[in-house]
C-alpha cells in the first residue's frame, strides 16, 4: 500500500498516515448498509432505517470503512459507530473540531451529548474535513465535517 502525499488536510505521520491513506484509497466505493469489515468492502445487509438494502451492493457503510482502515495498523474496532466511540481517548464535542488530529475518528449523533445516539463515524483528515461513507446511494468520499450532530471524536492511535 502506498502512503504517498496526502491530498487533504494537515500532515499525518505514522499509523495515522496509513489509516488515512487506506480510507482515501476507497474513495468512490459504493455505500452498502452493513458493508465492509477488517478485510475490505463486502456485501451489506438489509435494511437501513430508511429501508435501503445493502444485500446486492459490495462496499462500505461508515463503520465498515473505519474498521477496515484501522485494521491496516492492527487496531480492531467494534462494528458500529456508537461502539467505536468507546475506543481510545474520547475527544468531547465541547472541545470543538479544533481538538481533532488527522486520523481521529469523528462522530455524529442525534443527541451530541449522548454517545448512545451516535449514528455516524468518519475519519478526520484535518482542515475541517473527513472521509466517510455517508449514506445509501452515495460512495466513500471526502467532505467538510457536518455541522449537525457533531459528537466529538476518539483517538484510537
Please tell me about this protein's structure.
This protein is α+β, with helices and mostly antiparallel strands and 157 residues long. The chain has one domain (14-155): endopeptidase domain like (from Nostoc punctiforme) (endopeptidase fold (from Nostoc punctiforme)). Helix content is 16%, strand content 22%. The strands form 2 sheets. The protein has a 6-stranded antiparallel beta sheet with strand order 3-8-4-5-6-7. The longest helix is centred in the N-terminal third of the chain and has 11 residues, at 14-24. It starts with 13 loop residues before the first helix and ends with a strand.
Characterize this entry briefly.
The chain has 157 residues and is of the alpha+beta class. 16% of the residues lie in helices and 22% in strands.
- The structure class reads alpha+beta
What are the secondary-structure elements, in order, as H or E?
Answer: HEEHHEEEEEE
Task: Sum up the overall morphology in one term.
Answer: globular
Average of per-residue pLDDT values: 93
Q: Beta-sheet strand percentage?
A: 15-25%
Distance between the termini: 19 Å
Number of domains: 1
CATH architecture: Alpha-Beta Complex
Amino acid at each position: 500500500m502506498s502512503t504517498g502525499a496526502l491530498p487533504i488536510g494537515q500532515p499525518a505521520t505514522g499509523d495515522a498516515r496509513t489509516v488515512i491513506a487506506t480510507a482515501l484509497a476507497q474513495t468512490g466505493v459504493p455505500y452498502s448498509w452493513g458493508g465492509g469489515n477488517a478485510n475490505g468492502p463486502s456485501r451489506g445487509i438489509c435494511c437501513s432505517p430508511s429501508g435501503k438494502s445493502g444485500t446486492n451492493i459490495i462496499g462500505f457503510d461508515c463503520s465498515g470503512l473505519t474498521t477496515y482502515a484501522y485494521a491496516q495498523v492492527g487496531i480492531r474496532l467494534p462494528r458500529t459507530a456508537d461502539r467505536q466511540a468507546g475506543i481510545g481517548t474520547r475527544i468531547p464535542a465541547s472541545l470543538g473540531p479544533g481538538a481533532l488530529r488527522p486520523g481521529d475518528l469523528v462522530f455524529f449523533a442525534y443527541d451530541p451529548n449522548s454517545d448512545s445516539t451516535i449514528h455516524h463515524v468518519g475519519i478526520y483528515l484535518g482542515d475541517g474535513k473527513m472521509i466517510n461513507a455517508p449514506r445509501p446511494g452515495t460512495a466513500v468520499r471526502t467532505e467538510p465535517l457536518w455541522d449537525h450532530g457533531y459528537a466529538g471524536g476518539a483517538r484510537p492511535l
